Amino acid sequence: MSGGPPLPAECARLAAALRELRERTGLSLAALGGRTAFSKSSWERYLNGKKLPPREAVEALCALADEPPGRPLALWELAEQRWTGRAASAPGAAGGGAEGTPAPPPEPDTGRRPGRRVPGWSLAVGAVALAAAVPLALVLLSDEDAATGTAAGPGAPGSASVPSYAQSFEPGCHGEDCEGADAQAMGCGAQGLPATLATRRSAGGQRIEIRYAEKCGAVWAKATGLRLGDRVELTLPGADAKEVRAASRRDTEIYLSTAMTATDDPRRARVCLRPAEGAAECFAAPGG
């Protein structure tokens, strides 16, 4: 992109957010192409800001990264406004004169491979979200809960907004097949599947969650804000303990999850944070 116009700020922020999500998944570009309806080359363009990704691509990456889609989609809304030129043509937009009009960014790219179908839930979500446009995006960008909040449980207020994807998506394992497996790799952490049974903020600021995906029949612990050397342990009666440790500085900057434990009664789950310094803190799911 050297020698060309600088990437608009809205588009640069979106590309940076997508790169962060991709790093969190641990997937290569080829693996992203295999797990989504978009090709390896398309993902390279999206992640480097060369092309505007379709909304469905952002949703798919959020699902793979186990990330609530609110903030990434808000960034996409703003980038889409800039990419299509609608932001510049809006009443009161800065630089509306001939000399102040920035060079148009690259055209949007569908990136879909022939023969690959985009799930119907993505199209439905897109149609609903377009009605909200920029005002919704600005609200979501200021809402920290949208970026770090937990999934709504069945019947919870707002759960109707979760697309039918959670009902139609089939994860890679169920029951005993999920024992010891990674929730992310198996799709058990995909958008709308897991419910957060309990959350604890430790004295040191670490955030620990007990998560359960009924469709997978498995429970796991998710931790963010760990410090170097911190360990998180998940136990259930009659099952092997599952543990994850922050072994590098990178581990302290992203979330970590234990392997899954197969169970049909996640209320028996108990999680302990064993910090590198200080006393252990343990808690269980409600009713356990």
UniProtKB/TrEMBL annotation:
Pfam families linked: DUF2690 (PF10901), HTH_31 (PF13560)
GO molecular-function term, one example from the UniProt record: DNA binding
What SMART domains does UniProt report for this protein, alphabetically? HTH_XRE (SM00530)
Its protein name is: Uncharacterized protein
Q: Which organism is it from?
A: Streptomyces mobaraensis (strain ATCC 29032 / DSM 40847 / JCM 4168 / NBRC 13819 / NCIMB 11159 / IPCR 16-22)
List the lineage, top down. Bacteria, Bacillati, Actinomycetota, Actinomycetes, Kitasatosporales
